[in-house]
Amino acid sequence: MISVISIINNDAIAKQFLLQGLSWQNTRYDLILINNRNSLYKSAAQAYNEGSAKAKGDYLMFIHQDVLLPSRNWLKKAEESLSALPNLGIAGVAGMLQPTFINDFDLWARYYTLEKLNLSKIWYYRYARGNVFHGREKEFWLGKFTSKVLLAKTLDELLLIIPARFFENLRFDETTCDNWHLYGVDYSLTASQKCCDVFVLPQSVVHFSTGKVNKAYFKTLAKLIEKHRSEKIINTTIYPWSTRPRLMELQIRHFFSKGWLARNN
Fold first, then answer.
1. 94-96 vs 128-130, strand pairing mode
2. DSSP state of 9
3. DSSP-based three-state secondary structure for 186
4. Those residues with Cβ within 8 angstroms of residue 117's Cβ, 6 or more apart along the chain or in another chain
């Protein structure tokens, strides 16, 4: 059984997306809704860690309130896929593959060149995987559609599934991820370091929001990079970040120069 765990701060959104999709399911599930209408929690990691204590399922599914599971057998298929993955650390529905590169500067130079030529979609088509449709118009995201379970390097936070037994020994890091960003990326990297696998599932979801990047994101990013300094690059669904301080500073300047922070606040 899957325990569905979600942080709720907007009842209308939750009813229209998360709860509607769950009402269609043809299998048993455990539901834990975490009340954050009055901003009781300072971070997703804190809220999810607390909520997980009430879970009864074999798998814990941490899902945003604005995600719709569009098929009746979504949970049933997910559980079947998960049970066939013996070395599972964490799974999701959107993630990034590990890029191939000569060095981290070469990798970012490739991304930067594509972005300057307005061809950054090529980057995501090559490295991003997941069947995610965004907004009311249900537009497909920038990644590549997948029809099978795939190994990934990092996962997007919109939907994460972790075996309950594994989560008992490795919870979300409330110190590194002390706001609402990058806790899925951090967990993915940590699971890999513990020799467990990270997967993208071939199941479609509708995600109403496209996410926000604000100043808090960069505060968490700095701590994430310090924690995972052994990684040459942290490839996220937002941007491929270098763990080298000088190069990361150039990347952040480039990010700000494009006005992406202002547009997402």
1. antiparallel
2. S
3. helix
4. none
| Per-domain boundaries in the chain | 2-264
Q: Check: CB of residue 172 under 8 Å from CB of residue 184.
A: no
Rounded CA separation 4/155 (Å): 18
CA 10 to CA 37: how far, in whole Å?
7
Q: What is the DSSP letter of 99?
A: P
Q: Which two tokens stand for residue 218?
A: 């960069």
> Rounded to two decimals, what is the model's pTM?
0.92
210 is written with which tokens?
């496209």
For 55-73, write each residue's pLDDT tens digit: 999 999 999 999 999 999 9
Q: Does domain 2-264 have CATH number 3.90.550.10?
A: yes
Cα–Cα distance for residue pair 143/189, rounded to 1 Å: 20
Distance of CA 251 to the CA centre of its chain: 21
Structure tokens of 178?
Answer: 């002390």
